[in-house]
Amino acid sequence: MTVLIKAKASNLLTGRTAAPKTGHDKPHPVRLLPGLFQVGGGLYSHSRDACSYLIANESTGECIMIDSGSHSGYDALRANFRQVGDIKQLKLVIGTHCHWDHVEAFGHLCQDTQTKFALHRLDAEAVRTGDPDLTCAGFFYNEPFHPFPVDLELEGGETYEVGDYRLEILHLPGHTPGCIGVKLEYSRTGQVILIPGDSVAGAFSKRINSSSRAWKSTMRKLMRQNFDFMLPNHLPNGAQTALLGDVANRLARSNRQLQTDFHAFMDNQWN
Ligand SMILES: [Zn+2]
Ligand SMILES: [Zn+2]
C-alpha cells in the first residue's frame, strides 16, 4: 500500500533529527537511517515499552509506525513524533503482536489521529476483547487493556511502500500465534533490515498461547533469509538503540539459547 498525504513543512523534510533539549537520557527520536526513526521504547519513551519505529517518506511526510508501546510512554512517543513530523499524517500503525507493551498506546493514538491499526488475524481477538492473559496486560504488567478495533487483519505476505522503503509482513508465530516481523528493504542501498518484534527473543508461556514448535519453524524460516541488520524489540534499562549487524550469527545464537532454555523449562509450560 502506498499512502499519499499532503506535503507539509516539518522536521521530516529537513532530514535532521532534533537534538534533545535537555539531558542525554531524555526522550528523543533517533534517526537510524534516512526515513527510519526510533520514536519509542526504553529510554526513548518508557522502560516498559517495546521499541517503536517510524518509517517515513521524507519528501511527502507519509509515514507508518511499527508498534506503539503502551500508555506508559505515550506522552514521550508523541513528543518524539513531533520532533520528526506531524502525528496527524500517520496513516497506519502495524502491531507486531497483541501484547500490551507493544500496542496498547494505539487506544490513545486512534483518538488523536485518523490512523488505522493492522495486526495479524490470529492476535486480533485478544486486542478486540482486551484479554488480560493474551495481551499480557494483567498477566505480566498488572494493567488494564482497554480494547480497540483492528482495522486491518494481516495474514503475512502483505507489502507496503513508504518513501525509500518496501515493507513486507512476515508471519513469525511462536511467542504468540499472530506474531509478525517486518522485512524492510531500503532501496537506496539495497540493504534489508528485520524488525522482528518479539518473534526471535520473546518469552514463552501457555497463557499467551506460545508454541515452541511454531517458534522453531519461525527461526528456521528466518535463518534461511539474508538480513543486513535487525532492530531491537526491547532495550535494556538505559541502553541506546542501534542497527544490529551480524544478523545470521544473532539468529543462530538466539536459536541455540532458546533451544537450551526449552529443555530447561520443559515442565508442560510449552506445547
Ligand atoms: Zn510479546
Ligand atoms: Zn515485547
Give a written overview of the molecule.
With about 270 residues, the chain is an alpha/beta fold. It has a single domain (about 10-265), classed as Metallo-beta-lactamase, Chain A (4-Layer Sandwich). Helix content is about 25%, strand content about 20%. It has 7 helices and 12 strands. The structure holds zinc ion (2 copies). One zinc ion (ZN) binds next to loops.
List the main descriptive attributes of the protein structure presented here.
five-stranded mixed beta sheet; 12 strands; binds zinc ion; seven-stranded mixed beta sheet; 271 residues; Metallo-beta-lactamase, Chain A; 21% strand; alpha/beta; 24% helix; disordered C terminus
* Main sheet specs: 7 strands, mixed
Overall outline = globular
Strand order within the widest beta sheet: 1-2-3-4-5-6-7
Question: How many domains, in number, for the residues?
Answer: 1
Number of helices: 7
Estimated radius of gyration: 17 Å
Order of helices and strands: HEEEEHEHHEHEEEEEHEH
State the end-to-end CA separation.
36 Å
Mean pLDDT: 88
What share of residues is helical?
Answer: 10-25%
Question: Which CATH architecture?
Answer: 4-Layer Sandwich
What is the CATH level 1 assignment?
Answer: Alpha Beta
Molecules bound to protein: zinc ion
Oligomer: single chain
CATH topology: Metallo-beta-lactamase, Chain A
Unreliable residue stretches = 1-23, 263-271
Q: Give the structural class.
A: alpha/beta
